[in-house]
Amino acid sequence: MKFHILAVGNKMPDWVRKGYTEYCQRMPKEAELLLVEIKPEKRVGSKNTRQLLQAESERIRTVLPPGCHIVVLDETGKQATTMKLAEMMDRWMGSGQDVAFIIGGADGLHQDIKQMAHEKLALSAMTLPHGLARVLLAEQLYRAFSINRNHPYHRA
């Protein structure tokens, strides 16, 4: 199965690419981690936030893998411990269905994307830079996989 990270934003600093790549390479083929960067809508002219989010929403829909389990990352989502994430991962992998995590841009996500999600998670109660959210999600997915496989990476 595959874990897709669909992230609005395509010009991340080098530390984001390096951090994400580190954990992506650690994931085994049976739980492949794939990143799709979505170009944010340009904030020019008279476009309001709703119009910007709508344009980004359409871009997200075009790259969303068909039939996947959709998890939106949002600061108002459910907070889960690492152990709970490991349980969720075990359930997702048991279903055989790919999972798509969606990270919004500077203005968040359009309500339509939030409504189509099967689950809504928060990485933190704090607002995080979007690049850091990618790295943190990749690390936590690797950690959850390690827990489920009794790998020594996670030491509780």
Cα end-to-end separation: 27 Å
Strand order of the largest sheet: 2-1-4-3-5
Q: Tell me about the biggest sheet?
A: 5 strands, parallel
Rg, please?
15 Å
Can you walk me through this structure?
The protein is of the alpha/beta class. The protein has a single domain, classed as Alpha/beta knot, CATH 3.40.1280. Helix content is 43%, strand content 22%. It has five helices and five strands, in the order βαβαβαβαβα. It has helices at residues 14-26, 49-63, 82-95, 111-116, 130-148, and strands at 2-8, 32-38, 69-79, 99-103, 119-122. The chain has a five-stranded parallel beta sheet with strand order 2-1-4-3-5.
Protein topology:
Layout lengths: L1 E7 L5 H13 L5 E7 L10 H15 L5 E11 L2 H14 L3 E5 L7 H6 L2 E4 L7 H19 L8
Parallel strand pairs: 1-2, 1-4, 3-4, 3-5
Features:
156 residues; alpha/beta; Alpha/beta knot; 5-stranded parallel β-sheet; 5 helices; 43% helix; methyltransferase; cytoplasm; RlmH-like
What would you say about this model in short?
The protein is an alpha/beta fold and 156 residues long. Helices cover 43% and strands 22% of the residues.
